[in-house]
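Slide 14.
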Amino acid sequence: MGNKKSFDCVEMKYKIQEKMNKEFKNLSDEEIFSRLRMEEKNSQSPISQKWRQLEKKAVFAEK
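Slide 15: predicted structure.
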């Protein structure tokens, strides 16, 4: 019927969500947002770098 995939993105998503739910279980929304924002600011991932570039452009466009 089909080939066995070597990578299952849905399974990965569930594992990441489960991990995050455990980490954030007893935190307020503000604490969760703060942690995620700090992780994003310190991340060297390409998507985080691009996000920071877009934020800078948005801030300069508002002035």
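Speaker note: Residues 17-62 form one domain.
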